[in-house]
Amino acid sequence: MKVTESDTKKAKKRKPKYGMLSCVGYIYRLLWNTERGLVFTGIFTVPISLILSALALYIPPFILSVLETSDNFSKVALVIAGLLLTKMLFSICNTVLSIKIGSSEHLVLLQMEYMWTKKARDRDWYLDFDPEVDIKNERAAKAMENNHSAGVHFPMDFSNMVSQILNFLLFGTIISTLHPIIILLLAVGCVLNYLMSAWERKKNWGDRDERNALKRKISYFTYGLSDYKYAKDIRLYGMRDSLHDHLTDLYASDLKEKKKLERRSMLTALEKFLVVLVRDGAAYAFLIYKATRGEVDAASFLLYFSAITAMSGLMGGVLSTFNRVFEGAMQVSDFREAMEVPDGLNRGEGIPIPNRPFSIEFKNVSYKYPEGEKKVLDNISFRIEAGEKIALVGLNGAGKTTLTRLVCGLLLPDEGEVLIDGHTLFEYNRDEMYSLFGMVPQNYKLLPISIARNIASAMREEEIDRKRLEYCVEVAGLSEKIASLPMGLETPLNREVNRDGIELSGGETQKLLLARLLYKNPLCIILDEPTAALDPIAEDKLYRRYNEIAAHATSVFISHRLASTRFCDRIFLLDGANFAEVGTHDELMQAKGKYWELFNIQSKYYQSEDGKNEA
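^ thats the sequence. predicted structure below, dont judge the formating
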């Protein structure tokens, strides 16, 4: 299967937002704010590396020269021992720094993961639907994929690059005394290799988004669909072969991308081989020519030979490190761009939030999900009075859930404005505004923590008001279940994470969600079909309990079962991205419109042939 343009748009040429030096400063500030000692690790790596290279270069010819000119063995042995001891001490220092470098890499990884997790959990929720933000998320994830990622290695790779540049100058200075043309030859080879490596790096970086999209799909079809939740459907509906074929097509597309990378790598390797063959061959031939003419003695020959050999190896190392540093800078730039995605709502000081039930008003609001085919809501205007209870009803896909998300600022309208107590969403501080709402969503997730902390939405025990917690559990009708558990309210949920955890039934989960809503005691309650899995009688009872709880709050109830919302002050019927009908239950039934039609169709399913409700 080929990756379609809608799945992964063809990568456009793009440049990193931040340059290499800016990214160096960013990473070192990160290290400085977390573990300052590791900053000096990178700095000290440079001089120690240079000293070790100088010792490795000069010790052999120096020993050879001493042996040729001195007849005092004790003196020679002492000099050799001193040099080797010096080299050993610096080698020990280098080993200690290498260990510290490993620690710094893990720290950079952990810090980047922490920063990213905090950002992802805190940013405006509507951004999760933005495809451009999704691409930035994937790029950021690549930068902190593991402790071998170029973005994580970046600070130490930069130190290595500085060390190699200084070593280049050291070896180059020595070789230039043999003949300057050799330096020019080495420099030309280095430039050619760099240009080829830069071409490969930019090509690979340019189509990275396509590879990330493929990787995401392969991961989902390999691991995501292995979840037990999909096992029944795959077997009962015979989906195994089609899923296998689809995964095979994805692997074929991935292999095609990998071969593209392989071809680029082979071209670069071939170019480097030819450059090394000509460059090093010419340098060694010139040195041997000088030696045969007696213009270079044995110690000097060894020094020059070692310098040329070291320079040859260094050339490859410099280019590899340069590529790694530039790749790391690109990844750090991607990470920074993802971290800097701006929120749309007000994160600063806002006007005081209401301390009583408040009105909600939509003025000419339209909304379409990014890359959606049509508007979900189109030029909608209405007002919910303070303390009013309204019901949103309509067929699947009518936009009921989208509307409630717009009410509490989880989504932002494309056109028009949403007013809370007469003020736009942007006038309030976002987090203070969120405190006004309590939502029981259609699809809910309970955390693998204790029942008490799930109800109180608290991560620490000291944050929980125990008296309030027990009251909410009692009112929600969860006391009997809690009493049957050995650990009571401290019982953890989710057996996959906690060995002693439990799984609540559908009805018990609804009671827990009710207790959580009671504990928060919001000024606006939104119920988005949380009882869809319950039978009609149980749903009606639960909605009536919610109605009692919402006596002093503005409330929005969503249900497919129209009979469950008869207690609401008004009913809004959504159809075709707008309101088809608005009124009380009695008014809408008398009008004999769309609502009357849907109500009668539903009621037939709960009546027997003699017109009586079935038990």
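The radius of gyration is 35 Å.
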